[in-house]
Design a protein that fits this description.
- By secondary structure, the chain is mainly beta.
- It has 2 domains: 28 residues; 164 residues, Porin.
- The protein contains 1 helix and 8 strands, in the order αββββββββ.
- A hairpin with a 2-residue loop joins strand 7 and strand 8.
Length: 207
C-alpha cells in the first residue's frame, strides 16, 4: 500500500509538472504565430554596429588604409515565394563611419547600397540566413568627387516571435563593396570596403 501511494504521488507530481510547463508555454505564447508561407509580405529592418576597413589606391599608385567604427541601417522588402521560409526582396542599406583612421589623419565616410537579395528562415522560422547584392555609392569627407561600384552582404541570425506577425532578433553580418572613385566624372581611384557587424533585427511576415 505504501508503494502504491508513493507511485501515485510520483505520477501526480509528474502530471502537475507537465501541466505547469504547459501553462507556462501557453502564457509565453498566448498568440498564434503566422507561418512564413508563400504569398505573405516580408519586411526586415536591421541596425548594427561593428568594424570597417577602407582601402584605396589612386591612379598614381598612392595607397591608403583606413579603419574604424561603422554603423549600418538596412531594409529588405518583398514577399515569400516558392516554399515556406524563403523570401525574395529588394535590399537597401546605409553605412556610416564617423571615425576612419589612417594612422596619419581621421575622416568620415558614407556608403549606400541598393539591390536585391534572398532570405531563408528555417528551424520553425527561428533562424535565418540572408544574402544580397547591389549597386554601391559612397563619399568620404576629405575626398573629392564620389565613388560607384558593386557590393553585397551576408547575414545570419536568430529571431523570437513577439506577436503573430512580428519577430525580433539578433544578427551577425559581413559586408564587401568594390568601387571606383571619380573626380569630375573621371576615374581617379579604386576603393574596397569590408566590414563585420552585430545588430538587432525586426521582421514582419504579414498577409
Amino acid at each position: 500500500m505504501k508503494k502504491i501511494s508513493i507511485t501515485f504521488a510520483l505520477i501526480f507530481a509528474s502530471l502537475s509538472g507537465v501541466a505547469f510547463a504547459d501553462s507556462g508555454v501557453s502564457k509565453r505564447h498566448s498568440f498564434r504565430v503566422a507561418p512564413m508561407n508563400p504569398g505573405r509580405i516580408y519586411l526586415r529592418m536591421h541596425a548594427s554596429v561593428g568594424g570597417g576597413l577602407l582601402l584605396s589606391e589612386t591612379i598614381f599608385g598612392n595607397r591608403t588604409k583606413r579603419k574604424g567604427l561603422s554603423t549600418i541601417l538596412g531594409l529588405e522588402l518583398g514577399g515569400f515565394a516558392f516554399t515556406r521560409g524563403l523570401a525574395l526582396h529588394v535590399h537597401a542599406s546605409l553605412a556610416g563611419s564617423p571615425y576612419l583612421n589612417s594612422g596619419e589623419s581621421t575622416t568620415q565616410g558614407l556608403l549606400a547600397r541598393l539591390g536585391a537579395g534572398a532570405t531563408y528562415h528555417f528551424l520553425s522560422d527561428k533562424y535565418f540566413v540572408s544574402v544580397a547584392v547591389g549597386v554601391s555609392g559612397g563619399v568620404i569627407r576629405d575626398g573629392y568627387g564620389f565613388s560607384l561600384g558593386v557590393g553585397g552582404q551576408l547575414a545570419i541570425g536568430r529571431e523570437w516571435a513577439i506577436s503573430q506577425t512580428w519577430n525580433m532578433g539578433i544578427q551577425a553580418s559581413a559586408h564587401y563593396d568594390e568601387l571606383v572613385g571619380f573626380v569630375l566624372l573621371i576615374p581617379s581611384s579604386g576603393w574596397a570596403s569590408v566590414g563585420g557587424t552585430l545588430g538587432l533585427t525586426f521582421t514582419h511576415h504579414g498577409v
